[in-house]
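User: I'm putting together notes for a lab meeting next week and I want to include a structural view of one of the chains we've been expressing. I don't have a solved structure, so I'd like a prediction I can at least talk through. The sequence is below, exactly as it appears in our construct file.
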Amino acid sequence: MAKHLNIVIGGDAGQGLVTLGSLLAKGLVRSGYSIVVIQSYQSRIRGGHNTFTIRVSDGEIVAPQEPVDILVALNAETIRLHEAELSGHGVIVADAALAAEAGGAEFLAVPFSELGSKRVANVVALGVTASLVGLHHDRVSQTLADFFGKKHPEATEENQQALEKAFAWLSEQSVSMEKLPAVDDPPRRMMMNGNEAIALGALSAGLRFCSFYPMTPATSINLGVISHAKQMGVIVEQAEDEIAAINMALGASFAGAPSMVATSGGGFALMAEAVSLAGQTETPIVVVVAQRPGPATGLPTRTEQGDLEFVLHAGHGEFPRAILAPGTVEECFHLTRKAFELAEKYQSPVFVLTDQFLADSYRAVTPFDAANLEPVRPGADLSEASLPYRRFALTKNGVSPRLIPGATEHLVVADSDEHTEDGRLTEDLAVRRQMVDKRLRKHEGLRADTVAPDWAGDAGPEILLVSWGSTKGSVSEAASTLRPRGQRVATLHFSQVWPLVPEHFLRYFEDAERVVSVEGNALGQFARLIRRETGFEIRSQVRRYDGLPITPEYILEALDGQER
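Assistant: Thanks for the context. Below is the predicted structure for the 564-residue chain, given as structure tokens.
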């Protein structure tokens, strides 16, 4: 059986715990292990208790875990807050001076001051922890060298010395912790989080313009685009606010550049009017909404799935849209690509709904085969348009040939008011009805291109666990835990939450003895949407809205409580 370890690194912001955690996680991935990372941080630059949690296994894992096996404490507060979470064989790794803070748990007293200066304390912790779990020194050393590069030779030398001393010191200690089994011939994989995958998916789809106003947890999507912008020929603009950001993107898209904005709930609230503008002018745009707890500022660095209904109904008036909700890092890449394809094909706003947990959760990802992935091709061929050219020509499927302004000799006219087929303002009420019907006909095309939910498990299950977005892995592992208990369990995961196509999933609901929805909000928003669209009421629900990600243990505890 595969071995699992859950490593929690805790300390104050500014102590280098993210660097320590990232280097350790990357060393684990390079050594062939599977990881799931949770980052928990407060909304401040320095101070405040933060954690970087790495669940690691020599087998494939897809969800976080609650019990802690190794607690790397960079300060006393970490021990006080997390010692009770240690598993029966858990161990605390901390400076020898903090030994008095620990209770009955095994304590590995590290002489930090003897192994390196205060500047490299996090690298000392890296060496001790890496050696404790069974990583080879050379693998970690190379990871450290890659991190510093060749620009800082003095810092590199000091850190490498600290790493070597830490490995040597641990080799002389007697520790009960069982190491991870070695992985023979480790596969080549990347360490990537959801936001990085969204950025790469957008670039692979042909993104040419990205505008944004910084807002956690979406900002790193834009930073990911920026890091490749010059190489990929992408213009990135940090606007003065979210209103400007989305209107810039709409202007760029109108001019023929595939465009994206990425924000969170509070920023998206300012974009709602422009979403309607996209619907009226039939301008393609991709909007990424990285969810965090609201209302207002809420918990700006925590996670939630509370914006589904908001995104579904944002913008005044009636017009078609699609909402994709990736559940894995790989889906973040591929569904962002699909968002660009749908936006261009149906000339509508398309949304990618993610959250802080998935945004910051690193995984071991097989490199994407991008060689044969075609970017979207903006605009229609002139041969597809009847002349004289009418931008909003009435068509059977609602999609009109979209010529790019300036790309042909034909005039492209668009208006935010209701308009005629040639784009000119009108108050003819018969035309108004025709145009509404035309736009809404595109919904049928979006419906036909909807990604069907992913079903797995036992036929005719006693329990069917229904999830969407980032809860996918935890639901899957909870189901795997229930089956050995003698229960027939299946899972149904939605990676697209609008449009809903009842033919894709209603039969699974009807075949199950009990249907349970699992989502990270207080009202059961997806369950309510399903009831509205199908009439099927999901009576059993597991909800979490304290700002923490849903774990398999949380699901199982909730189910046990419902049964009692």
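A couple of points you could mention at the meeting. The two ends are 32 Å apart (CA to CA). The chain has a mean pLDDT of 96.

User: Perfect, that's what I needed.
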